[in-house]
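Hi P.,

Sorry for the delay on this. The queue was packed all week, but I finally got your sequence through. Input first:
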Amino acid sequence: MSKENKQVEPRDYWENHFLAWRASSLTRKAYCNQENINYPSFVYQLRANKRKNNQQQFIQINPHSINSNQGVGGLQIQLPNGVRIGMGNEANIDLFQAVLKIARGI
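Then the structure:
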């Protein structure tokens, strides 16, 4: 890392580069050459980031935040990536599991 990037958290440093690379439409290697980044390090961090993002993440649900006076049944989940998934009382659990699997890749 260069001197100006030493104060940036390593996770933020790489995440910023991953976002910039995706927006650049360059190949990984071309982007690393342009930004003077070690290509094997970039690929390693990219794979590690993907593995981390593919792990299931659990959040705490506060039952007091649910308004039971709405009269609406079902479930709505907001994933860490901002995607919201909802289902009614008669939802097909197999379909819901398939949607969750797809949402993980978003």
